[in-house]
Amino acid sequence: MERLMIFSEANIYILSKLVALMRRETGHRYRLNTQAAINQLINEAARHTDVRIQTFYRRFLENLTPEQRDILAAAGVEMPSDFLPPPSAAKASGNR
Description:
Blueprint: H1 9-26, H2 35-47, H3 51-62, H4 66-74, H5 89-94
């Protein structure tokens, strides 16, 4: 069975708002029952031009831990550069 990432109560609320807003805007019904479905919702919200969707998308990212951001980014979830971690010191020193 696929494991779901555990989100804060605030992020669960934000995801539920994104589901409602995205359904209203796109007509597509989103589910939060698999990690892949959650990732798809986040990616589609990232690309949407609606200001409300973008606001909730960025609030969702703001409430993630750095570890959660890394996991989602590794899974292909789109992250604005201001939410990505800076290159590690080890990588930076290897490029000199």
